[in-house]
């Protein structure tokens, strides 16, 4: 019982001691003196809802810092200026803050154009400029140690955009950007990133900042006339929302188009009204990844209550990514100022000359500027937007979220990381995985026009140049190219293997290339010349390309370009075959030569004699009159051919001789039988001529396809021009070969391998092919200025297209 009372007594004493300590700390905290530090804030249009959201986040950032750091000895005092959306006004506001209010840091300004000059002022006064909305890469070229970008550099997103373009195989994209420093700054980086994934930028659409609706519509109609259907929009929401509204009005938000928004618009999606979101349906967007942490959820609820209380007239305000950057920037600045301490927060007066007429000579220099810059550079904490730290004055956060605008919200379809590329689900632990640009790493996308199908990315332009593709009108091998009259007057239709290959190759291109087949013919429909004449028309500019069985030759390559060959190469010779099979009754003697016949006969006699010598003393069948012994010996030797000998062999040595002889006879009879069978069943066809020299030596007539370069090639090889006879078709070639040289025909036809293979397919039993006797590179398509297949290029209103062969 006494112990219980003692315990209660000690507990009461401990409670009183703690209470007195707490009271002492409170009194000491109330008596502590904090040093105010002037800080400037330069923003556009202070009465706009967007600016009020940012200012509220700045104030909450400072409030949260001082609440969590109750022992801090400094307090930031905000001095707010309205830059009125002007570069001069922003510079004047910054100059006023530095000169009159002697601020030690400036939060802002909003735009990259304003920041350009404000940074120079900050550098001169050694006042750090911390912008959470100026994202142009051009600002890094200023290289000021007093500029800190608390926002993502626009150049950090270009790899994410190019990864999306590569994932869907689009080969062209057109950037649409605002024509100022903000829009122009990222374009070189974007073009380089697209070229790295083999995507070209055929046109750059620069929109003036003050563009009217008519100007927007005119530019969109210009884009509509081009074949590219992939557009990358890099501009702020004020202009971008108008652009998309006009695109929707003229039906450019359907399934044939691809719209990719850069972070300048996508980071503000949460603050856009319903009408703007409605015009963005199906568009893709790249925006800064912000982790959805518990702290962010709590802050959003807390901020919404406070903002609604301070601004009751603004309904449904939302936080965007720059608002979170504003919070983190204010928090980081308060932390940096506190780390510097309470010393040297003053300005050193400038020694301006009495004759100076500019305000720039009168403002002083912040004494703690270098220390504050060093403190900001080493600031590192977990902010609302993610890990917050500066490296060379730039915010280090490069993960992007890929979204698809569906309904009234943006649906996340994947993520992009510099180390691993596209990911369907973000994996922060995977930092060294393989880089991926596969579209399988993206969630299903609903494209413009509520289409689930991936757009091709190009369409046939409405005013694009149509290629003039020449085709020969020659009666040669119609299987390659054939021109026939069309169903209506003054029209033609073109068929054949070369045309099919040409159409397939053009269809395989990732871009629209329109073309017309134009026959190389006279007004009466007959051919206008040879293949050399046809090639010359491309050089003269009458045709852009040729779709024909045109052989790739060195002399032609001096004036036109050829694609890779699409047929077998070489020039071959086709000649008639003669049957070498003997028709006489003595054909059975053909399998063996006379030497072999004689040798066999001698061996038959020798074997008969050897067996008689070994057997006649001990074998009665080999005895008797001499005539009987001779007959028996020869009979025994020859009967082994059919293994029908009747005489028995008694001597072992004679048996050994017979065994060897039977084996030899077996081989001899089987070889004879096989050779005779071959002679009687297989046709012995031989070419009438085996080389060109024999034809020239015998002064035979040689045929070639009319209009071909082969005639010139044969003359160069020593064939007299009078011994050449051109033919117009395969049927005429067959007729010439059948008649022969003596009857007005030819002894051989010489042409390219593809032509002769077609000929033999029709007359395979009568002719044979020899060669190739000359080397050529095969058939190829012809183009001028690399227009076709190997590299299709044409210009139309600054529109340049590069195509790659797919065959």
Question: What does it look like?
Answer:
The chain is of the alpha/beta class and 807 residues long. It contains 23 helices and 31 strands. The strands form seven sheets. It has an eight-stranded mixed β-sheet with strand order 7-6-8-9-10-16-17-18, with helices on both faces. Strands 25, 26, 27, 28, 29 and 30 form a six-stranded mixed β-sheet that branches. A hairpin with a 2-residue loop joins strand 13 and strand 14 (386-391). The model is unreliable at 1-31 and 786-807 (pLDDT under 50).
Primary descriptors:
single chain; alpha/beta; Rossmann fold; 6 domains; eight-stranded mixed β-sheet; six-stranded mixed β-sheet; 23 helices; disordered N terminus; disordered C terminus
Give the gist of this structure.
This protein has 807 residues and is an alpha/beta fold.
């Amino acid at each position: 019982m006494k112990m219980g009372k003692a315990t209660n007594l000690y507990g009461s004493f401990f409670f009183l001691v703690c209470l007195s300590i707490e009271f002492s700390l409170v009194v000491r905290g109330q008596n502590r003196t904090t040093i105010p530090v002037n800080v400037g804030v330069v923003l556009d249009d202070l009465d706009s809802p967007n600016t009020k959201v940012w200012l509220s986040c700045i104030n909450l950032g400072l409030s949260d810092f001082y609440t969590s750091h109750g022992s801090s000895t400094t307090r930031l005092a905000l001095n707010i200026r309205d830059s009125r959306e002007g570069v001069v006004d922003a510079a004047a506001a910054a100059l006023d803050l530095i000169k009159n209010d002697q601020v030690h840091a400036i939060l802002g300004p909003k735009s990259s154009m304003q920041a350009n000059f404000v940074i120079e002022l900050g550098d001169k006064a050694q006042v750090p400029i911390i912008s959470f909305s100026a994202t142009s890469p051009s600002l890094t070229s200023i290289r000021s140690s007093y500029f800190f970008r608390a926002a993502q550099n626009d150049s950090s997103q270009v790899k994410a955009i190019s990864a999306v373009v590569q994932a869907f195989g689009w080969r062209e994209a057109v950037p649409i950007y605002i024509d100022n420093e903000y829009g122009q700054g990222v374009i070189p980086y974007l073009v380089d990133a697209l070229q790295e994934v083999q995507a070209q930028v055929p046109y750059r659409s620069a929109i003036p900042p003050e563009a009217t609706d008519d100007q927007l519509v005119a530019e969109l109609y210009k884009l509509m006339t081009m074949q590219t259907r992939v557009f990358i929009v890099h501009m702020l929401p004020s202009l971008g929302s108008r652009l998309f509204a006009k695109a929707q009005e003229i039906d450019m938000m359907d399934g044939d188009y691809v719209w990719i928004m850069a972070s300048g618009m996508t980071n503000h999606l949460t603050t856009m009204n319903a009408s703007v979101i409605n015009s963005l349906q199906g568009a893709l967007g790249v925006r800064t990844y912000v982790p959805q942490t518990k702290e962010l959820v709590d802050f959003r609820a807390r901020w919404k209550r406070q903002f609604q209380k301070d601004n009751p007239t603004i309904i449904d305000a939302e936080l965007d990514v720059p608002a979170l950057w504003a919070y983190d920037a204010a928090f980081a600045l308060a932390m940096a100022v506190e780390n510097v301490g309470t010393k040297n927060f003053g300005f050193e007066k400038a020694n301006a000359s009495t004759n100076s007429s500019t305000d720039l000579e009168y403002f002083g220099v912040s004494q703690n500027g270098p220390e504050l810059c060093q403190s900001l550079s080493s600031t590192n904490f977990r902010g609302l937007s993610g890990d917050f730290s500066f490296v060379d004055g730039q915010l280090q956060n490069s993960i992007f979220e890929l979204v698809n605008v569906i309904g009234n919200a943006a649906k996340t379809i994947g993520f992009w990381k510099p180390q691993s590329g596209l990911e369907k689900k973000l994996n922060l632990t995977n930092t060294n995985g393989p880089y991926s640009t596969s579209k399988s790493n993206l969630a299903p996308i609903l494209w413009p026009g509520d289409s689930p199908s991936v757009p091709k990315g190009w369409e046939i332009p409405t005013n694009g140049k149509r290629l003039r593709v020449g085709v020969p009108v020659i009666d040669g091998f119609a299987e390659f190219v054939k021109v026939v009259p069309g169903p209506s007057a003054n029209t033609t239709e073109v068929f054949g293997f070369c045309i099919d290959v040409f159409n397939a190759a053009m269809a395989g291109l990732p871009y629209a290339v329109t073309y017309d087949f134009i026959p190389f013919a006279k007004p009466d429909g007959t051919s206008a010349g040879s293949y050399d004449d046809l090639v010359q028309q491309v050089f003269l500019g009458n045709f852009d390309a040729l779709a024909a069985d045109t052989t790739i030759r060195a002399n032609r390559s001096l004036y036109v370009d050829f694609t890779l060959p699409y047929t077998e190469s070489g020039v071959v010779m086709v000649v008639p075959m003669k049957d070498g099979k003997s028709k006489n009754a003595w054909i059975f003697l053909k399998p063996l030569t006379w030497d072999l016949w004689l040798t066999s006969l001698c061996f038959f006699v020798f074997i008969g004699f050897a067996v008689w010598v070994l057997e006649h003393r001990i074998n009665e069948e080999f005895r008797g009159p001499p005539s009987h012994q001779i007959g028996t010996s020869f009979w025994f030797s020859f009967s082994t051919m059919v293994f029908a000998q009747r005489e028995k062999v008694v001597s072992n040595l004679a048996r050994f001789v017979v065994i060897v002889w039977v084996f030899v006879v077996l081989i001899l009879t089987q070889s004879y039988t096989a050779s005779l069978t071959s002679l009687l069943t297989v046709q012995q066809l031989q070419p009438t001529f085996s080389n060109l020299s024999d034809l020239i030596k015998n002064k035979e007539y040689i045929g070639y396809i009319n209009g071909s370069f082969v005639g010139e090639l044969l003359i160069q090889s020593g064939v007299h021009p009078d011994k050449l006879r051109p033919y117009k078709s395969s049927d005429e070639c067959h007729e010439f070969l059948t008649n022969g040289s003596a009857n007005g025909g030819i002894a051989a036809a010489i042409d390219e391998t593809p032509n002769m293979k077609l000929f033999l397919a029709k007359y395979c039993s009568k002719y044979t092919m020899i060669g190739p006797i000359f080397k050529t590179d095969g058939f190829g398509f012809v183009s001028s200025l690399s227009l076709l297949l190997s590299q299709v290029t044409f210009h139309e209103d600054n529109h340049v297209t590069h195509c790659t062969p797919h065959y």
